[in-house]
């Protein structure tokens, strides 16, 4: 099976371009992911998900990032630059780029950006970024694969993340999680089963790893998670980063800025951790058990 990244190629190119520009400016401007996160009102882990190409860039984050790195939004996302322009009717290109002012095409701006700041981008990223700009100009069509209609009823595709979320001592997540496979499900059927979610494209599959959440979650059980939940919203099972490792555990609020991390058996004792040091990535909604009979 051919591996496909979680985001479509144009969205990945935007993330890669944004990350490259950040790295090229961080020393000069004394920037860090935490400073970007503070300015954007989010956690450093959330910023990292943008830079790693796990989450697509949005206009709000793009505007903050552009201001922090002192580059125009076009430098990494002509799509979002146009979105911001349509909302504000304000120029979002350099003042010194007179030839590529508001009236210039997105492809022209990207070509200019690549000639000035794109030397660290891979050829594939350069190609994808330019293709995305040309699509914005009406010169092509970008295929988005985060939603593909099923062949029956309301079925949709849900991506499977190539990460092992530990139900024990913790796993160090991959730098670039990819889809191992897709599954086809019916959102209506999931809701009838009691699974609560706002949008189907918030749903992803991950694999639990370890024994500490048995019998609720067994080793290698596939899990349906909602990646739109990035903060504690009540007692439950979450996928979260803590001290550089990725876990799946029960979290229980105990007050005074602390959370209790709980396993479902006695292999690991409950642990009290600081909420500020816990970066929630998703909430587990469903265990896809495969029980032998």
From TrEMBL:
CDD domains: HTH_XRE, S24_LexA-like. Residues 27-76 form the HTH cro/C1-type domain. The keyword Transcription regulation applies. InterPro entries: Cro/C1-type_HTH, Lambda_DNA-bd_dom_sf, LexA-like, LexA/Signal_pep-like_sf, Peptidase_S24_S26A/B/C. Gene3D superfamilies: lambda repressor-like DNA-binding domains (1.10.260.40), Umud Fragment, subunit A (2.10.109.10). Pfam families: HTH_3, Peptidase_S24. Keywords: DNA-binding, Transcription, Transcription regulation. PANTHER family: FELS-1 PROPHAGE TRANSCRIPTIONAL REGULATOR, PTHR40661. This is Propanediol utilization protein. It comes from Pseudomonas rhizophila. The lineage of its organism: Bacteria, Pseudomonadati, Pseudomonadota, Gammaproteobacteria, Pseudomonadales.
């Amino acid at each position: 099976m051919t591996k496909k990244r979680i985001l479509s190629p144009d969205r990945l190119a935007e993330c890669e371009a944004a990350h490259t520009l950040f790295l090229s400016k961080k020393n000069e401007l004394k920037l860090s992911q935490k400073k970007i996160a503070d300015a954007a009102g989010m956690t450093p882990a959330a910023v990292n998900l943008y830079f790693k190409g796990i989450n697509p860039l949005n206009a709000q984050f793009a505007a903050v990032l552009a201001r922090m790195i002192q580059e125009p939004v076009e430098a990494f996302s002509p799509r979002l630059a146009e979105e911001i322009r349509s909302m504000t009717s304000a120029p979002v290109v350099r003042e010194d780029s007179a030839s590529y002012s508001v009236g210039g095409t997105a492809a022209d701006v990207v070509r200019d950006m690549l000639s000035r700041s794109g030397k660290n981008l891979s050829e594939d990223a350069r190609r994808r970024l330019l293709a995305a700009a040309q699509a914005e100009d009406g010169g092509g069509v970008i295929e988005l694969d985060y939603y593909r209609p099923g062949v029956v009823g309301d079925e949709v595709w849900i991506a499977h993340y190539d990460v092992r979320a530990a139900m024990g001592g913790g796993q160090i997540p991959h730098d670039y999680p990819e889809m191992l496979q897709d599954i086809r499900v019916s959102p209506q059927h999931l809701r009838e089963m009691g699974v609560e979610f706002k949008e189907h494209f918030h749903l992803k599959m991950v694999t639990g790893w370890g024994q500490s959440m048995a019998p609720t979650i067994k080793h290698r059980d596939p899990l349906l998670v909602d990646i739109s939940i990035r903060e504690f919203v009540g007692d439950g099972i979450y996928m979260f980063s803590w001290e550089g490792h990725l876990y799946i555990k029960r979290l229980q609020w105990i007050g005074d800025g602390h959370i209790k991390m709980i396993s479902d058996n006695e292999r690991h004792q409950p642990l009290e951790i600081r909420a500020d040091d816990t970066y929630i990535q998703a909430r587990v909604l469903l265990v896809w058990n495969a029980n032998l009979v």
